[in-house]
Design a protein that fits this description.
single chain, 5 helices, 5 strands, 20% strand, Mannitol-specific EII, Chain A, 5-stranded mixed β-sheet, alpha/beta, 37% helix
Amino acid sequence: MSIDIRPVLHARNVRVHDRATDRAAAIHRCADVLEEIGAVHPAYREAMLDREWAMSTYLGAGVAIPHGLDMSRALVRHDSIVVLRFPDGVDWDGETVTVCVAIAARGDGHVALLAALAQILLDPARARALREADDPATVIALFQEHE
């Protein structure tokens, strides 16, 4: 499977050496980057936290997908994905997260990227490569790989 992720995932959206003390701090870091790249209104941060407290965004394999509630779509300026890697890990309600793939989407433009993420996580070698990526180009290439 090959998808064009260029509209939603750029090198400036990927941080491979980030730090967070806990789940809330990791979500704040995701919101910081989404705001920095102009993808969301600052109020989207609270929507991401509200979503997390309503239902954990932990997917498994050390990956979480923080995102806002459906009603927060109006706070999204343009669809975007940010990938933050936390080499030291972050406690996520008893699980250890090393990668957050934060989503800001007005519609369903992120669905193909989530499908690509699922394919990465289903392949243990690719999932490990995502968790261990040390440069943005590697992360982007993983999402573009053919299955």
